[in-house]
Amino acid sequence: xxxxxxKKYQFGRAISAVAFTKAFHPTIKGRENIPSDGPLIFCGNHxxxxxxxxxxxxxxxxxxxMAKKEYFESKLGPIFKFMGxxxxxxxxxxHESKEIAIEYLxxxxxxxxxxxxxxxxxxxxxxxxxxxxxKNVIGTDIEFEQFKSEIVxxxxxxxxIELIKKLFEEGLIPQSSLYYCLTHAKLALSDFLRMGxxxxxxxxxxxxxxxxxxxxxxxxxxxxxxxxxxVTGDYKxxxxxxxxxxxxxxKVEEDLSASNEKLKQKxxxxxxxxxxxxx
Length: 279
What we know:
CATH superfamily of the largest domain: Glycerol-3-phosphate (1)-acyltransferase
Radius of gyration: 19 Å
Distance between the termini: 45 Å
Oligomer: single chain
Helix content: 40-55%
CATH topology of the largest domain: Glycerol-3-phosphate (1)-acyltransferase
Order of helices and strands: HEEHEHHEHEHHHHHHHEEH
Strand content: 5-15%
Structural class: alpha/beta
CATH architecture of the largest domain: 3-Layer(aba) Sandwich
Largest sheet: 7 strands, mixed
Number of domains: 2
CATH class of the largest domain: Alpha Beta
Strand order of the largest sheet: 1-7-6-2-5-3-4
Number of helices: 13
């Protein structure tokens, strides 16, 4: 099993938690659902490269986060190595990271991962739905091609709320509509669902990409418990809407498909709970 320094992690976690909390003031819900003993797999949705930090603020247990190789090769690489993260090389040896994670779990340690496999962004099939909403409900006079080009320019990846804010910042929706979408509705897509512009399945798919099977398969192989969590909000200083919510830990069933669906529904429930409890 790869060597790691527990004291390094705890030192880094303590410093990071203080700085992160001071900057972003994350709200922590469901902390009591985090077991004190492992092995545990922390698994949640993925919106931002910093999504592990709200989790690290919530618990002192050591977590080995699985992170793609590109992060280790970036300017943040030394931090990922210092904190005992597991490097995931998707191109050359995607299975090695899973084997390392399983070793950690078998030794009673904990890992963290994002089962979506990548950061959640706006899917192409929702562009028409969003345009219809803005055109018919809000009344924007933007033409579709302009609307689409602003969204897909440089192939950005947005959460749904980040998209609404971007459209506002670029002058494509008025201040009054932004207030309605973000303050009254809390999450614009909940209006799409209520007005019948999208289905419940589309709404849930917009919040969470299909989950990979890594979390449930490793949990089954090592008898680890999965701790589901959901992060919502913005990584902007003093914005005060960043929230992490933990559900009850559970063990997977023999049927991996059923267990993966169970994990998905737990994360979706936590995501929606976050949005419903926002001030």
